[in-house]
Design brief:
This protein has seven helices and seven strands; from the N terminus they run βββββααααββααα. The protein is of the alpha+beta class.
């Protein structure tokens, strides 16, 4: 059976038998991989801690009939411990890996991999508020998947903004001429924050007030749930309190 090596971020794990785990990983070159890590639940396991959710590892695997087998794992990014000690970071990371799991069923995507690793690293280092980091990740991940929202030009007609009506089903802000009756309206500060989260303008995003952050988070959650089948179970547990 052929061996291969890749860098991977652990999305989730499941128990298998008395000592093994099934590890679902997003890899740099091979997309999403499900593999068995034998004996990792034993206290003497040499690499069990390197295969926990949110960890980034250099893994060696060989191809199995149904599931691949992990034979080696070396730590590349030990983000799990720092993330799990903070509830806001933990819930945000949980929503991130669930999103990555849903968005990477098809071909490998280096962009999705790099985006997820960068977001987890940012959470672990407390670079920004966990809720802001999550919202930025969700907008960018959906954009890579082909669902980039418009926060300037009309998503239907392309007419230049600013526009205040936001319609999830139409892909973003829309001109008054095409806005459905009763379409929700966003103020200029919320639209600016959403645009900043999408483009990575962190100075603007970090300076947003609590009310604006809350409104933006609601928009991001609605947009994400609409585009992902069955939505995100972990999103309802995210800590939306402002921490920085």
């Amino acid at each position: 059976m052929p061996l291969y090596r890749d860098e991977a971020v652990v999305l989730r794990t499941h128990k298998l038998g008395e000592a093994d785990r099934i590890v679902t990983m997003l890899t740099r070159q091979h997309g999403k991989v499900r593999a068995v890590a034998k004996g990792v639940r034993r206290t003497a396991s040499k690499f069990g801690a390197r295969l926990e959710p949110f960890m980034v590892a250099d893994v060696q695997l060989y191809e199995g009939r149904s599931l691949d087998i992990i034979t080696q794992a070396e730590s590349v990014g030990s983000y799990g411990a720092d993330i799990t000690t903070d509830y806001g970071s933990y819930t945000a990371a949980s929503a991130m890996v669930e999103t990555a799991d849903k968005l990477t069923e098809g071909e490998p995507s280096l962009q999705q991999y790099l985006l997820l690793v960068g977001a987890l690293r940012s959470l672990a280092r407390r670079e920004h508020g966990s809720s802001l980091t999550l919202d930025s990740y969700l907008l960018r991940a959906l954009s890579i998947a082909g669902w980039s929202p418009s926060f300037d030009d009309c998503a239907v007609t392309g007419v230049p903004g600013p526009h205040s009506a936001f319609v999830v089903q139409l892909g973003g802000v829309v001109a008054d001429a095409v806005a459905p009756p009763g379409a929700p309206r966003l103020d200029a500060k919320t639209i600016l924050l959403l645009s900043s989260l999408l483009t990575g303008e962190w100075e603007t995003a970090d300076g947003a007030d609590d009310r604006t952050r809350s409104q933006a988070s609601g928009v991001v959650a609605a947009y994400t749930q609409f585009h992902l089948d069955r939505g995100l179970r972990s999103l309802q547990h995210v800590d939306r309190r402002v921490t920085s």
